[in-house]
């Protein structure tokens, strides 16, 4: 009996298929037996195989893995030469051991029996990785970052200019402030902590907060452009004068800018420390909180005129004042009357005050070259009830400009 080639081919194919089915069946049985109550074949974590471990053994593996990772710093943050460390214990950083164990054990066990068998065979051949993540206390992280912020943050400090006894100007440099915004920092660190990506190294970049008065503002300042002194008696009125004048100390007016007396001194209230003292209201003597502050604005007004600055807003009193010549006062009132001046000079000017307890002097410091060698005098013409004020610009002892400022009309004080 002869067998055709075609028949022989069928016999060989059937035999090969039978062999393959046998091998597949044996493989399935082997995988099923090997994976029974254990993590299935092919599963690994952190570069190590964990196949064949029981749940208890896998839990210990993940716990040991977490402990080994937690030996490192969670983060090392730096700003210039300063170093700030965040330890895992600072934020209660811990591995999610239970979750990782459960996830590893569920691999190849979450479908139908046939799906599980096929998946287990696939994982045994191609492998499967389980990654353990971590958790931490977000409030503790925020508290830690707040402490770092407190250590870094600094308030800007204005540069200052003070008059020495010999009339020279002593300058102290400005300090640039720092402000660390921790909200984006916390958001940036969180993903690394949650994925156990330790140790995070980061250079902090706090925002710089420049002061208002900078070194460049004072650089060319070399002398007194103008000054004026008025006198007063100690007491509640004198205390009000000292308090208001203290707000002028260190005021800088850049070229082309203006200064408002009311804005820089602020409201004259009891809460601000002002006391009741004598004032003149519509020609009559009275007592009111903040009495005496107009002497400060009037002293400033005269210093401003002598420094070559430009009055923008100025109002005379109802009646002439005793502390300045007629026509050279500048009254102020909260929210009603202000004294404002502008700096027309090329460089900034800087105010400084001296208060002896019975005399107030306002100095306007600046760059002497801005006055081009000119000096200034004030001249009042007319009667004491209707004075006209002129500013005289002089050079080499001669008047080169006669500037009319204003004419006031006073009323007599009521008895």
From TrEMBL:
Would the keyword Protein biosynthesis turn up in this protein's UniProt record? no
Keywords of the record: Membrane, Transmembrane, Transmembrane helix
* Lineage top rank: taxon: Bacteria
| A matching Pfam family | PG_binding_4
**Which stretches make up the YoaR-like putative peptidoglycan binding domain?**
85-188
Q: Tell me where the transmembrane regions lie.
A: 12-34
Name-wise, this protein is: Vancomycin resistance protein YoaR, contains peptidoglycan-binding and VanW domains
Membrane among keywords: yes
């Amino acid at each position: 009996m002869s067998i055709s080639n075609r028949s022989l081919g069928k016999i060989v194919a059937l035999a090969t298929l039978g062999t393959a089915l046998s091998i597949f069946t044996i493989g399935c049985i082997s995988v099923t037996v090997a994976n029974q109550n254990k993590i299935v074949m092919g599963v690994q974590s952190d570069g190590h195989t964990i196949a064949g471990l029981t749940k208890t053994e896998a839990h210990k593996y993940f716990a040991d893995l977490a402990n080994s990772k937690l030996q490192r710093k969670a983060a090392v943050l730096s700003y210039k030469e300063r170093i700030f460390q965040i330890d895992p214990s600072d934020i209660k950083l811990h591995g999610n051991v239970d979750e990782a164990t459960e996830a590893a054990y569920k691999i190849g066990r979450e479908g139908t029996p046939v799906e599980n068998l096929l998946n287990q065979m696939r994982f045994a051949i191609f492998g499967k990785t389980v990654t353990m993540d971590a958790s931490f206390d977000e409030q503790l992280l925020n508290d830690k970052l707040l402490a770092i912020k407190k250590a870094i943050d600094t308030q800007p400090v204005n540069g200052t200019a003070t008059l020495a006894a010999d009339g020279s100007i002593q300058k102290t440099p400005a300090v640039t402030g720092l402000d660390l915004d921790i909200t984006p920092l916390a958001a940036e660190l969180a993903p690394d902590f949650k994925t156990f990506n330790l140790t995070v190294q980061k250079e902090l970049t706090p925002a710089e907060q420049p002061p208002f008065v900078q070194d460049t503002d004072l650089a060319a300042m070399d002398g007194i452009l103008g000054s004026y002194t008025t006198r007063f008696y100690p007491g509640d009125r004198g205390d009000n004068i000292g308090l208001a004048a203290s707000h002028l100390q260190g005021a800088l007016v850049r070229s082309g800018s203006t200064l408002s007396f009311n804005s820089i001194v602020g409201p004259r209230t009891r809460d601000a420390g002002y006391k009741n003292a004598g004032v003149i209201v519509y020609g009559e003597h009275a007592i009111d909180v903040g009495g005496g502050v107009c002497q400060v604005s009037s002293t400033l007004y005269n210093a401003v005129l002598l420094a070559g600055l430009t009055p923008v807003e100025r109002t005379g009193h109802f009646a002439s004042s005793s502390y300045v010549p007629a026509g050279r006062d500048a009254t102020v009132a909260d929210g009603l009357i202000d004294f404002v001046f502008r700096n027309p000079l090329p460089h900034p000017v800087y105010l400084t005050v001296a208060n002896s307890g019975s005399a107030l002097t306002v100095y306007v410091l600046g760059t002497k070259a801005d006055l081009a060698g000119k000096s200034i005098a004030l001249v009042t013409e007319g009667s004491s009830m209707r004075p006209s004020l002129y500013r005289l610009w002089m050079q080499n002892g001669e008047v080169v400009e006669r500037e009319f400022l204003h004419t006031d009309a006073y009323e007599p004080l009521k008895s």
